[in-house]
Amino acid sequence: HKRRSRGIRVERDAKGSATGKLFGDIAAFNQLFASISSNADREGGLRQFFADMNARGVTGIIDPSAGPAAAYEPLFAMRNQGDLPLRVGYRIPVQPEAKGHEAQWFSNLMAFRPARADDGQLAFLGLGESLVAGMNDGVRMTPGFSSSEQDKTALRQVATFAAKRGIPLEIHAYTDDSADTILTIFEQVAQQYDLRPLRWSIAHLNTGSPQTLERMRKLGLAYTVQMGPYFEGLAIRDANPPGATDNSPPVRLALDKGLVVAGGTDSTRIGIAGIWHAIEYHITGIASGGSVRKPASERLTRLEALALYTRHAAWLAFAEQHRGQLSVGKQADLAVLNQPFMTMPEDRIDTIRAVLTLVDGRIVHESPDLNAGQ
After folding, report:
1. 202: nearest Cα among 244, 225, 171, 229
2. For the Amidohydrolase domain, which residue ranges apply (predicted)?
3. What pLDDT does residue 226 have?
4. Among candidate residues 248, 230, 225, the one with its CA nearest the CA of residue 305
5. pTM, 2 dp
């Protein structure tokens, strides 16, 4: 195929033949594979996506709002129609026009909003995951990230505003260096405000160190792990000191320190949204194509991996009293799976699908296989 997106580099061998590897950034790959929705089909596309999530047993998601505000209009319309087939939490990210006055922008935005709100279908969960553009290290693999004093001041102002108002937030940090800078700022804010009730979290943290996780624990921060290292294992290995991939992402370390670790899949343009692939990865420790494997001591048990995407995710949404576990008194959000998660081969977990999915006791997905043979 002759078509190639700008920004994509094709790796070739000594004979000039393509090896099958492509290199480039997210925007370039989006142009290769993504079809940009028109306004007319946004709601249809969202409904199709939610149906696919229900078919995988997903009953709720948290979206840290990586897209433009207009992308949420179909979501709000579905909620108003009583048509949401799963529970959705969302956060508000900084927008380009806020550059240089981020704290004031968030203050204006929140002037007529509560710190958080949840009507049972749709939950506003504060700010994130981009709060100040210059503090975001993107998908950087190597150590050495730094930000300007102006950007650090801006983040301190945003964090102080959020802490004073009691607003939850999530912030992006791919590398330990980025997290170090963020935590220094949060520690300064914590001298004036108790962050523990706010359930702030750091996302990604692919190369997070024990020292960083300990600082997070002391502040009461959570960790939202994503799928980056599944795809980027080789890049992380090559860009960091030996042994970096043994605990990338550092989920085992975080759990052992007592942090709440909520499981994510990252954006649909760079991750696999159906959760089971991510759960399998935490259990096997095997990155894409077998490129990297974590030692057994850094992997999770099946119940630990499942908890990231159930109990811990519900906690992050301030909803642990209502869902996240199958127990008396909680909402009937559950899925009947087509394979036995606890006993099936671990390298087949990604093939799990739901034959029946309920949200608040209402059937939102029913597989034809459910009644087969009856």
Report:
1. 171
2. 6-365
3. 96
4. 225
5. 0.91
